[in-house]
Amino acid sequence: MTSADYTVDLDTAEQFLEYIRPSRSHWDTYLQGKLRWVFRGQRDANWALLPSAWRTDEASKVTMEHLSSNYGTEGLSTFEHHFERCRLTTPSYVADINSQSETELRILQEFIAHANAAGMPLPYSSVEIQPQDFGFIAAFQGKEIDYPGYEQRNGHFFDIALRSQSMDFGDINEELGNSPELHEEIRSLREAWPFLINFTMRNPVAALAQHHGIPTRLLDWSHDSRIAAYFACSNINEEEMADFNKRVSVFALNPFLLQRERITEDDLAQFPNDTEAAKVHLSQHSTFVEKSETTSYLAAQSGLFTHPDFADLFRILTGEYPTIDKSIELMINWKQHTSSDGSHDIKDYIRKITLPYHESDRLMEMLDDERIFLATLMPSLDRMKESILARSIRSSRIAKRR
Questions:
Q1: Which helix (H) or strand (E) holds 93?
Q2: DSSP characters for 34-57?
Q3: Is the pLDDT of residue 340 over 70?
């Protein structure tokens, strides 16, 4: 199962806009009522559904380093909570994950500090990041971890992930002396790394930061497919439009069917030691909506977010973070190989609709007629000039082609 199984390639702006309208019958997938699907636009159809905090291109990495003050630049705040990153005492994947999580939280701390310096209200009760607000402790079963404030969770599939990070101390039993406690600790570490703080970033301040350009592990979506189409096409320049091989994409996600048909840990209970079952469980994503007086753009864009439930656990098991499209592929593949109940087609969960770059101006003009343009999506007087220029430049570009 690959993205080709749920991709719909269209040739004209008219076809594209007509296809993505939620009122079309092809969006009627086993549920009655509106708002079944949500949409996300991406300016390159080859891009995966990868959150901005996890992108590995050089520009994204440099941006993360600067935003987290890793180049030694002086920030407006300090981040006192340091996770274990020493590779001499911590497995390499755990050290990498702790470093990444610390970077993401440090960036959120800088975001809060700058907003406070500007006197802007935030949907967060503290001026200092409380990491326990953004994740939980995943502990090996039978382990009690002393990290005040964190919710602690256990599970068979957490154990599989944590067991992948067991440590090899060689034959050091004679060097440990007669300390039962130390022998027990070494025995435990030979079996599995005892815990990992798994971050979801399901939090109002993370949602607000994401929506205003701060890289996080969240993804933005909209209930309005036209808004997703706008953001897919809005930054394509004239030179790029000359490339007839390039396409934009709008992803469609059915969160209601995804939630109703998701594979639970109980469903996988008969496979307690199966690594593939663990991947299915740990790759899962969920949606959440954040509305407050500080998120007017979210209201204008009918916005919501997806977040990974167990991304850090998935990474120590597989070496990579899960994306929502790959998560759905894993789930569908698992159902097809283990169930005979005729599970849903993958297109019932996710679709990817693409359009050639050279059709983007035409699509933007059609969206403009429906009052989908920058000024209505980002209602701020500071955006008016940008909106006027964008519409005028596009009109001039179209006139030159005639």
A1: helix 92-117
A2: S---EEEEES-TT--S--GGG--S
A3: no
